[in-house]
Design goal:
It is found in: Cytoplasm. Its main location: cytoplasm. Belongs to the RRF family. This is Ribosome-recycling factor. Keywords: Cytoplasm, Protein biosynthesis. By secondary structure, the protein is α+β, with helices and mostly antiparallel strands. It folds into 2 domains: about 100 residues, Topoisomerase I, Chain A, domain 4 (Orthogonal Bundle); about 70 residues, Gyrase A, domain 2 (2-Layer Sandwich). The chain has 4 helices and 6 strands; from the N terminus they run αββββαββαα. Strands 3-4-6-5 form a 4-stranded antiparallel beta sheet, with helices on one face. It has a two-stranded antiparallel sheet with strand order 1-2. Strand 5 and strand 6 form a beta hairpin. Helix 3 runs antiparallel to helix 4.
Length: about 190
């Protein structure tokens, strides 16, 4: 192996882990017919002149399996929170009760379940693309080192290391997608 070239595989792993973490966050926002506070994480409210996560304008609770409540701290923001939820694409119809917004989680019908599995598939594909972009960056570093005098054997070694790492992470994405799709389709 070349003494002067060492690929930073820890950096590649860290970036691929970031893509997986982002995928898990996106998956958490998908409704599976059960109430979850995390389903509101991607929803942003126009509060005080900037876009703010819901959990920073009120308390999010899950009092029962099919109900999420948001106790909005500032009465003037109740309408904006309700509007943000309606426009979020979650398919939930908020109900107001003073400063408390109740979100009854309806049963998912078969058609909606299929739509959600497709959305999960899109999220997974975006994650795969991110992982492949990290792979490409690693391969570019290897090509640059090859141009700077790295031996062909070293080049092949590092390329196979990067490819093995990529394959491991793509497999994790596929497993996470399969698990999420089973969870969504479960009645």
């Amino acid at each position: 192996m070349s003494d002067d070239f060492e690929l930073d595989t820890d950096d590649l792993k860290r970036r691929m882990d970031g893509a997986i973490a982002n995928l898990r966050t996106e998956f958490a926002s998908l409704r599976t017919g059960r109430a979850s506070a995390s389903m509101l994480e991607p929803v942003q409210v126009d509060a005080y002149g900037s876009m703010t996560p819901i959990n920073q304008v009120g308390t999010v609770n899950v009092p029962e399996p099919r109900m999420v409540t948001i106790n909005v701290w500032d009465k003037s923001l109740v309408g904006k929170v309700e509007k943000a939820i309606r426009e979020s694409g979650l398919g939930i119809n908020p109900q107001l009760n003073g400063t408390i917004i109740m979100l009854p989680i309806p049963e998912l019908n078969e058609e909606r379940r299929r739509e959600l599995t497709k959305v999960a598939g899109h999220y997974a594909e975006h994650c795969r693309v991110s992982i492949r972009n990290v792979r490409r960056d690693g391969m570019d570093q290897i090509k640059k080192a090859k141009a700077d005098g790295m031996s062909e054997d070293d080049q092949k070694f590092w390329e196979s290391e990067v490819q093995d790492l990529t394959d491991q992470y793509i497999k994790r994405v596929d497993e996470a997608l399969e698990t999420k799709q089973e969870e969504i389709m479960q009645v």
